[in-house]
Amino acid sequence: MLLQGKVAIIHGGGGAIGGAVARVFAREGARVYLCGRTRAKLDRVVRDIVAAGGRAEAAEVDALDEHAVEHHVEGVALRAGRVDIALNAIGFAHVQGTPFVDLSLADFAYPVEAYARTNFLTAQAVGRRMVEQGAGVILTLSTPGARISGQGFLGNGVASAAIEAFSRILAGELGASGVRVVCLRPDAIPEALAESHSRDVFAGAAARAGSTIEALLDGRAQQATLLKRLPTLCQVAEVAAFIASDRAAAMTGTVANLSCGSIVD
Asked: Could you say which residues form the signal peptide (predicted)?
């Protein structure tokens, strides 16, 4: 098993990506601590993991609340003895599809501020423990918006670029202490549309294009990716497990391109 004996904390563990990663982490032997703001979603993932023979616990934690994040990480560290892996898979519904000339400052700034804040808080809370123990892996989550140009996703793109820069710089700060930091950059994942915030993000863009969300994503898959398809939750989760494992011990300060070729690094 890739993650046998590891302790992992996943913020946004009840969401599509967070839940998929949690299930694979647990299958690979990790003890998984899920947190988020919707208990019912977290409990569903925990039930799946336990039914498959894994170990998981859930807690309601607002990943924008510094004290709540710190309290939860402290509790995990006390009970489990360490924190080996952390993933921030939090998602925020935000405006996309509005041209720059019509975009309000509030709609632009919201994803930038929210994603920067939550990634800082969750990384700092686990980073303190990882530095003390001399090892750990921090995973972040970005989008192709960090690297492409176009209309209607300025807030999303700047937020994604900020997460990627944060991850690279943080890797430099923590590397000497044995802590790795890697950002995952999947393209849009059709299966994740079951999550309300994902639908909200794409709804505005689809409406302005006079299309449906499904047609919008199908067009992106055919026109913008080398593989003529978009990534699946399973594919993203499997890569996350490998990167979090000791087999990827030489990898840090980089972005894992999971875009199916919509971005070519």
From this structure: none
Check if the beta carbon of residue 166 is closer than 8 Å to that of residue 110.
no
The pair of three-digit structure tokens given for residue 82, joined into one six-digit string: 């360490």
From the list 55, 90, 97, 54, the residue with the least C-alpha distance to 76 is 55
Tokens of 32: 């998984």
- The predicted model gives 45-53 an average pLDDT of 98
Q: How confident is the model at residue 197 (pLDDT cuts 50, 70, 90)?
A: low
Closest-CA residue to 58 (of 70, 73, 42): 42
Helices 105-133 & 66-80 angle (0-180, nearest 10) = 30
Is 265 inside a domain boundary?
Answer: no
Residue 2, domain member (yes or no): no
Is the residue at 150 inside a domain?
yes
- pLDDT at residue 34, as a whole number: 98
| Residue-wise pLDDT tens digits, 205-216 | 666 667 787 887
Mean pLDDT along residues 89-94: 90
Quote the number of domains for the chain.
1
Residue 208 structural domain: 7-258
Q: Whose CA is closest to 172, among 101, 70, 254?
A: 254
201 pLDDT exceeds 70? no
Query: Rounded distance, CA 82 to CA 133, Å?
Result: 8
